[in-house]
Amino acid sequence: MLIALIARDKPGHLQTRLDNRDAHLAYINDTGAVAQAGPLLDQDGNMAGSLVILDVEDMAAGEEWAANDPYNKAGLFEAVELITWKKVIG
User: Fold this and answer.
1) Cα-flanking dihedrals φ and ψ of residue 7, to 5°?
2) CA-to-CA distance for 73 and 90, rounded, in angstroms?
3) Pairing state of beta strands 47-55 and 34-41?
4) pLDDT grade for 90, boundaries at 50, 70 and 90
5) Longest dimension (CA), the chain
6) What value, to the nearest 5°, has the Cα angle with vertex 89 and ends 38 and 57?
7) How open is the CA angle 86-2-51, to the nearest 5 degrees?
8) What sequence ranges are listed for the domain YCII-related (predicted)?
9) 7 closest CA partner among 59, 63, 50, 57
């Protein structure tokens, strides 16, 4: 199952993102659940959120992945949405 994780950072928390980026990227590599990922950018080009496409067994696995993401554990996100996604192009 593909799930789009869309997360928006809390305003003023760029340093939290930077401080936890290495752990977040290691988590992506270690779990093997991420098909695609990248930061959302604000109008100035600064990282301001995340778009992660998870390839997991079910929504519960996606929720567990999101809960254990170092960014989430660091309190970076203002909002996180998990949506079942269907790949059509690419």
Assistant:
1) -125, 135
2) 32
3) antiparallel
4) confident
5) 37
6) 65
7) 95
8) 1-86
9) 50
